[in-house]
Amino acid sequence: MGIAIQGIPGSFHHQVVLDYFGTESEVNYHRTFEQAVKAVSEAKDQYAVLAIENSIAGAILPNYELIDRYGLHISGEYYLPISHNLLALPGQKIADIKEVRSHPMALLQCKKFFQDYPDILLSDDLDTATVAKRIAEESLMGVAAVASKAAAEIYQLQILASDIQTVKDNFTRFIILQKGKPEKTDGSDKVSLKIIISNEMGSLAKLLTQISEYGLNLSKIQSVPVIEKPWDYAFFMDAHFESFLRLEEALKGIVQNGAEVKVLGEYRSSKFCKEDKR
Q: Do 49 and 5 contact (CB within 8 A), yes or no?
């Protein structure tokens, strides 16, 4: 079984597979995030790589819902330094470009660059590399893509401008998903949780205090409404822990205080480093 991703060769998800699993990995490409997640849920693929948040644009909320709905487990994470580049058919200049297409997240991350080119139409598309491939296959003149340097090489496009992302220290956090719950390992030091609390005065403050008292270092919190329970909220949280014993004590205490807790994964944290940028 292979590794499911949303996108095609040259996409950032593809790059994560090469970095995390190795260049000999069997990659299965899917049109949408849900199709990639579903392939793992149905045991057609062993793992899925899924972008979950970006240091500039923030969390990708629909992907949190996919993890929860399909009941997958997080077994790892990877921070990829993102380099966005303006790609077009060889022989063109930026002045020749009338439209730029890319994933909406990529366009958002390059917003400042395009402020200097107000006549260029920015169009949302499915995937960064997909646009690059389409430009090459259909010989689209006057159209450019925002994509990786790898996509430029794979699809033989010219780089009109390099590293056009607004913030140069731009990272996307990807998570590794699998169907079965991975075995606990001594190296695990991070947990991802879904916690539902009722909408009562001070309930969130009490929850955060309790998390701190048990020695969990909260690194991420994202709230989403619980559709089937109006005015109740689910919180997706990431926290670092020192031992499984303290983690289990914390989870038990949170449940005893009336919250619903679902463990999405326990895994080794991955630290990103500025020197690792591509």
A: yes
